[in-house]
Amino acid sequence: MSTQVEAVVVGGGQSGVAMSEHLSKSGVSHVVLEKARIAEAWRTARWDSLCANGPAWHDRFPGATIDDYEQDDFVPKDRVAQYMQDYAEMIDAPIKTGVEVESVTKLWNRQGYEVRTKGGETYEARFVIAATGPFQIPAVPNVVPEDAAVTQLHSSAYKNPEQLPEGGVLVVGAGSSGVQIAEELNSAGRKVYLSVGQHDRPPRRYRDRDNVWWLGVLGKWEMATPGPGKEHTTIAVTGFRNGYTIDFRELADRGVTLTGRTQGFVDGTITFNDDLVANVRAGDENYLSVLDEADAYIEANGLDLPEEPEARTFLPDPDCMVNPLSELDLAAAGITTIIWATGFRVDYSWLNVPGVVDHLGRPLHARGVTPVAGIYYLGLPWLSRRGSSFIWGTWHDAKYIADQIDIQRNYSEYSGNAGRPTPLEASK
């Protein structure tokens, strides 16, 4: 027999916890189904030394601070996971862990959906919120065959240098994951090659303010979703070692060999695009543009913040940029491992409702609201704005989804009785 609830939230990470809070505030009966533990991705799908990419005052829900760290500290991943666990207990979120959803299908000839779990439980709900996040299936390019004489793993499977076989490492991808892993391996004495693609490279701090503060006062958190078919450029930023600005020339100066984007693999040799210099300099332009905007904001608003002219000084181009590699014989270079820091793909194969994904399986939505009544997405990058993938951003997106659900409930229940709010009034 099915359990009846108004809403089922699939996923018990930061998005599922935030969604539960807002559904409870709206009086919506619901259950959150999590296949592992609360915030499992923070616990096991990250490397050991990962910290949040924003300071403690920023990377949190509005309802609770992280008081055992200084507010400008970057909180380690395990503490972030504990924060989510504690927050779920604080709001008494109805989260069932160890429950994996097998399928969601439309109920026959009536409103709502049937949610089946792999453990045999079923739920009937009018609303289903897919809050499984963006880190579902590791995206590994089909470049190097699986039977090649080199260990290959995705960044989500990397934990620490001791995990890898002896020898050099090629890290493919220069976003937040790739640059942090490359630096950690280099510091551990490994020979590291880093394949650098297009990226934005913001300053970690500038003129006594963190990057996230600048994004706020410059209005950049509210930047709109890029749009269908457009991918946002990866960001090279880190909170490791309490935050520092990523600088590819400095990485090279410390021993990391930079290359262009990985192109192909033939007979044990990796080939690279001739785009390293262009990619690094485009990142520099992005970095300098943020400094320019920050300087203009300070002047326009009469702020008394210390000047930082040294922030505009770069090291000379390293030899690996002057004479970039076009190819690399892995065995000759002593490379025994390739780490693919190349992102993820989503997997909504369990969401068996026509009209909620496109022909490539990508979610169809506007600010998380799908074209199909009662189905919503939460926790995706750029769901509504630039800040959507941050902890605070998903909290605000969850509030918007809860408001849409509340509007739908009012439409269904409105009977025209005197004194009852209209759906328009209820949405305000």
Describe this structure in words.
- The protein is of the alpha/beta class and 428 residues long.
- It has 10 helices and 21 strands.
- The strands form 6 sheets. A 5-stranded parallel sheet has the order 4-3-2-8-21, with helices on one face. Strands 10-19-11-12-15 form a 5-stranded parallel sheet.
- β11, α4 and β12 (192-195) form a beta-alpha-beta unit.
- α1 (14-25) runs parallel beside α9.
- It is globular, with a radius of gyration of 24 Å.
- The two termini are 38 Å apart.
Brief summary:
This protein is of the alpha/beta class. It has ten helices and 21 strands. A five-stranded parallel β-sheet has the order 4-3-2-8-21, covered by helices on one side.
Uncertain runs are 415-428
Strand content: 15-25%
**Category from helices, strands and their pairing:** alpha/beta
Computed Rg: 24 Å
Largest sheet: 5 strands, parallel
Number of strands: 21
Quickly list its features.
428 residues, alpha/beta, five-stranded parallel β-sheet, 21 strands, 26% helix, globular, disordered C terminus
List the helices and strands and how they pair.
Layout (H helix, E strand, L loop, with lengths): L2 E2 L2 E4 L3 H12 L4 E5 L5 H5 L32 H14 L4 E3 L3 E6 L6 E5 L4 E4 L1 E4 L6 E2 L12 E4 L13 E5 L3 H12 L4 E4 L9 E2 L2 E2 H7 L30 H6 L3 E3 L2 E5 L2 E4 L3 H26 L17 H4 L4 E3 L5 E6 L3 E2 L29 E3 L13 H23 L9 H4 L2
